[in-house]
Amino acid sequence: MSVTTPDAPQEVPAASAAATLRPGSLGTADIAFFVVSAAAPLTVMAGVAPLAILLGGIGAPVGYLLAGLTLAVFAVGFTTMSRHVKSGGAFYAFITRGLGRPVGIGAALLALVGYNGMEIGVYGLLGTATQDTVHALLGTDIPWLPVSLAGLLLIGYGGYRSIDFGAKVLGVLLVAETGILVLLAAGVLLKGGAHGLSAASLAPGNVLVPGTAAVLAFAFAAFTGFESTVIYRREARDPERTVPRATYLAVGFLGLFYAFVVWTVVQAFGDEEVVRAAAEDPGGLFFSAITTYVGGWAADLMHVFIVTSVLASLLAFHNAINRYGLALAEEGVLPRALGRVHPRHRSPYVAGIAQTVLGVAVVLAFRAAGADPYGQLLLWVNTPGMIGLLLLQLLAAIAVPCYFRRVRHQEGALRTVLAPLAATALLATAIVLVVTHIDLFTGASSTVNTVLVLVAPAVFLLGLPLAAWLRHRRPDAYAGFAAEPSGSVEAAEPTPPAEPAETARPAELP
């Protein structure tokens, strides 16, 4: 009695509070699981890496290393700013604090559209990947729509449950999908590849080829969503440490792992033969390699794990979207109902339900139009989302030095100026590469590609009149946009003057 009685009253305020996400639920590994799972390593490798090899030749592994290094440079300023800005709005909060509220509100809309695009389009991939797996294993053809709808319900349930439940699920699925790739790599290394192991992929003559630009475009897309570590700071244990660690862990792992796996597949076929094999059957390249070096049973497992890889990516993005929706509802930009948190699971369940309903509507609309689930639902919805997230990264990189110019701090110039400026130049280059090679992502006409490219900047620009409307019609919501949560301490530095300087500055934002 004496043990249970004190606990009961504590649940009442938790259930009735406006925001009751469960603090201290996630450690470094948990947050990294969300980020790496969102990237879907197995799906990226088996589904996209063969195209990178086809276009860039045996130097393709270096493209993934270069993309990882670029995002690691971006992470320097990004994680430094995360110690100062505690808002749950992540990207849009950072951008608001550095570039002002109008730009931040445009970024908030862009984040919503970008993350939703990255998730909803993947339900088309879930349908086609499951079709391929069932056909490969059982020789049976199934319709894609019921699979996609079932996936929507399953992911909706996963987002409804507690965040630690999601972390456990993602941990298991991530081990499965990375494990099968490690098994492939081990088989190739143990057998010495097709003609012995070679470091020719690293030779400058094989890296500096015309196709490398296309490889870099694919490589940057393969990291999409890594920055979502900051979204989970309200549920992280010791967020000042776990969030930066999870960010660097995710970027470092993905960059090295992608490059290593692509290199081992090059070794599996040989430097001279791998491009020809990728041209003949890009979708079967990884399955052929694992069948040869491990066995047919491993190829069957890879088929199954591609489906679970897609599910893991969907759950990771779903959780990120829900928390963006929660943050914007708390800001007063979205309906307040979306800010409700489940009293037991401590999840933003209303935002999750709304996101699931939106997903169902989009999937059914594409089906009613007779669209292809892969070539149109996936690629046409995913592509604007990918461009939107790259634009958010660019804006965040620009925001870092602008923010630190206006506050007192003890951070070094490397973290607050040099690294963010370098990241700005590198990310701008990445966006140019993606846009100029957009046809490789979509396979669509120039008219469709133009529309897909313009979606992200158009959404961002819509935020500017919305900001003006909020400023005049809802000044309280505008003034409190991207403000620090009550009771938070903004500055992480031990220097006493840092706190009042930072808490005073947000009120001066335009």
Automatic annotation (TrEMBL):
Residues 500-510 have a biased composition (Low complexity). It is found in: Membrane. It comes from the Bacteria. It is a multi-pass membrane protein. GO terms for biological process: transmembrane transport. The chain crosses the membrane at residues 31-56, 62-82, 103-126, 142-160, 169-190, 202-226, 246-266, 286-317, 349-366, 386-404, 416-438, 450-470. Gene3D superfamilies: Amino acid/polyamine transporter I (1.20.1740.10). InterPro entries: AA-permease/SLC12A_dom (IPR004841), APC_superfamily (IPR050367). Residues 485-510 are annotated as: Disordered. GO terms for cellular component: membrane. Signal peptide: none annotated. Residues 35-465 form the Amino acid permease/ SLC12A domain. Coiled coil: none annotated. Its main location: membrane. Keywords: Membrane, Transmembrane, Transmembrane helix. Pfam families: AA_permease (PF00324). This is Amino acid transporter.
